Amino acid sequence: MSDALVSILDHLILQKVFGPSDEYLRMIRRAFGVQVTVDAANISLKGDAESIRKTSLLFEQLQCYVKKHGELVADDVQRAISEILQGDRISDVKPLDVYGTKRVRPKTAGQGRYVETLRKKEVVLCTGPAGTGKTYLAVARAVEALRSEEIKKIVLVRPAVEAGENLGFLPGDLHAKINPYLRPLFDALGEMIERDMLRRAIEEDRVEVIPLAYMRGRTLNNAYIILDEAQNTTVAQMKMFLTRMGFGSRIAVCGDITQTDLPSHKKSGLVDALIRLKGIEGIGTVRLEASDIVRHSLVQQIVNAYEQTGRVVFDHQHDEDNQNNAEETEVTELLP
User: Fold this and answer.
1) CA 222 – CA 226 distance, rounded (Å)
2) How far apart are CA 30 and CA 36, in angstroms?
3) Confidence of residue 167 (pLDDT cuts 50, 70, 90)
4) What angle, rounded to 10 degrees, do the helices at 23-32 and 49-69 form?
5) DSSP of 220-277
6) Residue 124 contacts residue 227 (beta carbons within 8 Å)
7) Beta bridge partners of 208
8) Distances from the Cα of 71 to the Cαs of 2, 30, 45, 57, 137, in angstroms?
């Protein structure tokens, strides 16, 4: 059992660090297994040496964060705990300002790096398992850019590739058939923009949600263009999409290279782009991990279970050749 003291910058600051009714303090105790007491000048910690070291660092940085930003919410504390546990310093990532008073905050260290990359780079390629916030954070960044007038339009794009089902079996006209593929993008937008405001933005052509095939022949200036489920694009489709970028535009490409629904003989455009575009200035790549999953806790356990048995293999992919396997290995190695 070891102990340590952490200086208190200000008791009002410490009150915000501990949270309402000490909610954040209980989160920290559970995460690190330390005993925490407070006197007039110091926070006293007791526990094993490594936990004490990390908790000391956490309290020091959280106090500095509150001093700079004036506020702290549960998501900030959870992200800070995640970053400290992963051996990182707490990233000072500004929350994404979307419409109204809503702010979207990265909840893990990986998400913090992703948000920073979205702000710095003109083209961002992001891979990661389900639930890591790849598309959600990209949409939030696009809404923020639209609100601040960095861009004039948001374009959300998805390839209409079936995951074991066929478009032809869905009822209705073309719009009705493609709507299920675009629904996740509408859901993300709906969490950030009020329904009436979103409807008006769509009518005024400031927000557009379309299938990938509708991008051919267009050039989009001053737009934030997001491609979701990019692992389901072919090489030709990815090239077509990326070359739609006009002046003043930004692109975010999101996908999970372990869950492609393409036929086994077709190469994923996302895998190809990660290799082909490596090292180009202005293009950033981010790899999110299972530790960045922010859905139900069972989702992270499911992803971990699949990762323990190797790359996810679907029934229609079991005959993939050695070349594709080698390409995925190369992508895994080059991603940060």
Assistant:
1) 13
2) 11
3) very low
4) 150
5) B-SEEEEE-SGGGSBHHHHHHHHTTB-TT-EEEEEE-TT---S-TTSPBHHHHHHHHT
6) no
7) 155
8) 31, 22, 24, 19, 21
The residues, any chain, with a CB within 8 Å of residue 55's CB and separated by 6 or more, are 28, 32, 34, 36, 45, 47
Contacts of 316 (CB under 8 A, 6+ apart): 263, 264
Better-predicted residue by pLDDT, 191 or 221: 221
Helices (H), the chain: 11-18, 23-32, 49-69, 74-85, 109-120, 134-147, 174-190, 195-203, 235-242, 269-276, 297-308, 322-334
**Which phi and psi (to 5°) does residue 315 adopt?**
-55, -40
Percentage of the chain lying above the pLDDT 90 cut: 44
Euclidean distance between CA atoms 128 and 132, whole angstroms: 7
Q: Indicate the SS3 state at residue 47.
A: strand
Contacts 24+ apart (CB under 8 A), 303-307: 303/129, 303/130, 303/131, 306/258
Token digits of residue 330 = 């190369």
Q: What is the pLDDT of residue 3?
A: 85
C-alpha dist (Å) from residue 146 to 36, 133, 158, 225, 282:
44, 20, 20, 12, 20
Residues 6+ apart with CB under 8 A from 285: 124, 125, 126, 127, 274, 278, 334, 335, 336
Backbone angles phi, psi at 30, to 5 degrees: -65, -40
CB atoms within 10 A of CB 248: 14
Its pTM stands at 0.73
* Alpha-carbon distances of 119 from 123, 145, 257, 285, rounded to whole Å: 10, 9, 23, 13
Distance (Å, whole) CA 164 – CA 248: 38
Residue 316's pLDDT is 38
Type and span of the H or E element at 210 = strand 207-211
Rounded to whole angstroms, the Cα distance separating 118 from 251 reads 9
